[in-house]
Amino acid sequence: MRFLAVLLLVLGAASTAFAAEKEIPSSYQQLVLSYAPLVKKTAPAVVNIYTSRKVQVVSPLMNDPFFRQFFGGNLVQQQQVNSLGSGVIVDKSGLVMTNNHVVKDSEEIKIVLSDRREYEAKIVVADPTTDLALLKLKNVNGALPTIEFADSDKLEVGDVVLAIGDPFGVGQTVTSGIVSALARTTAGINDYQFFIQTDAAINPGNSGGALVDMEGHLVGINTAIFSPTGSSNGIGFAIPSNMVATILAGQNGNGKIVRPWFGAAFQPVTADVAESMGLDVPKGALIKEVYPDSPAAQADLRSGDVVLKFGDKEIADAQALKFRIATAPVGKTTFLQILRKGKEENLEMQMEAPPEKPSRSSHTVEGLSPLAGATIANLSPALATELNLHDYSGVVLTAIAPQSKAAIIGFLPNDIILGVNKQKITNVKQLREVLASPIRNWIISMKRGEKTLEVTLAR
Asked: Looking at 83, 86, 152, 207, which residue is catalytic?
């Protein structure tokens, strides 16, 4: 009985405390919870982006032999294509960050602020590898509203966030949700897959808009949705603000981003590899190859090492390491924690800008060779980093002219030419000499991604 009395006393005290927590609101502010102050703080820095470009389309009349007979191929028409998206003012002078796919190939860009002011804009940086683009507003008078950046690494699953943008072109819209996952690496959206996932409604037109936290700071740029219908399905992805800040800080005024050069190729750690190396679970990034004279080589990183930490950040997989390298500041020293032969070790690495040696010596191939219409260049660490390649020497195709012989045959940008007619190719000068020779039959070997291909052609 004494135990029962004590139990009832405890329960009674808990009930009293619980009742105290449920006090009647004493003010209107306690009664009504609202994101309105947060929206007023952040929404002015989120803009609508309208773009237009001209494309050539073939008239449907070309399907009729009668019209083809009289007009030949002259029924190609120019059509103006308009699209919309969102952006975030990241500098009061008029710099706007958005997605690259929002402004790609645009001929005209118009920015509309939340207060209806309109500006023309030009592209300062276009970075397809991250799907980010930096725009500069023209003829800006006075300071524009901006959003302060947050450290996206401090986000946690369950944090409340707001998505601000212009879905479907209906005008600026705010939706709320939570961070439903972090470090998503399988979305297949860009080359640096390390996304914030949210259930805040994101729809077409939201791309490039802001994802903000409850302190009114930018935590990400809304980029894509996972949906079979094209509308919000509760799974949206945002590029972390730390990557956005890297693009903003890394642009050097000539439209290019300077990223650190790691100098080693790596791959995921599979379950079998994890077991063989004594890891409890598959984690980290397995080093496949270290390139001579690179920062990785100078840090004594070796093939077979598993990178477990980059700085103070744990590396879950190869994509995570790729993201950490891309967001590391050039010129700084970082520390790697690695697993080597079953033992953990710490290495010190200097994050350097990739050198452009040899020079590109870019050249557009002409004449009757299979590569006619392709632009070729010498690979270097700088060009390889720019193109997101892991080969730092040889000759790469940087562009293919539409309808050219190279395009018709099937060559693609980023193909690396390894040899022509069994002759190894190491530089642009050598390839130009071979292509200029009177050859009737061609055997071209090349590397595309991780595959080595051989193309045999007869003139």
From this structure: 207
CA distances from 323 to 105, 326, 436 (A): 26, 5, 42
- Whole-number mean pLDDT of the chain? 85
What tens digit of pLDDT does each residue of 189-240 get?
555 667 899 999 888 888 999 999 999 999 999 988 776 666 667 788 999 9
Domains and CATH numbers, the chain: 44-137 (2.40.10.10), 152-250 (2.40.10.10), 264-350 (2.30.42.10), 363-458 (2.30.42.10)
Distance CA 385, CA 65 (A): 49
Distance (Å) of CA 200 to CA 71, 210, 224, 233, 242: 52, 11, 12, 10, 20
pLDDT in tens, 63-107: 555 545 555 555 556 666 677 899 999 999 999 999 999 999 888
Which carries the bigger pLDDT value, residue 258 or residue 214? 214
Residue pointed to by tokens 């006619």: 372
- Torsion of Cα atoms, 265 then 358 then 130 then 193, to 10°: 0
Give residue for tokens 């791959």.
Answer: 267
What does the pLDDT average to over 358-365? 95
Q: Which residue has the tokens 């919870």?
A: 33
The answer to whether 376 touches 362, Cβ cutoff 8 Å, is yes
**Catalytic residue chosen out of the listed positions 86, 101, 369, 380:** 101
Contact, 132 vs 100, CB < 8 A?
yes
Q: Is 131 a catalytic residue?
A: yes
Q: How far apart are CA 361 and CA 294, in angstroms?
A: 22
Q: Which of 83, 106, 127, 131 is catalytic?
A: 131
pLDDT at 57: 57
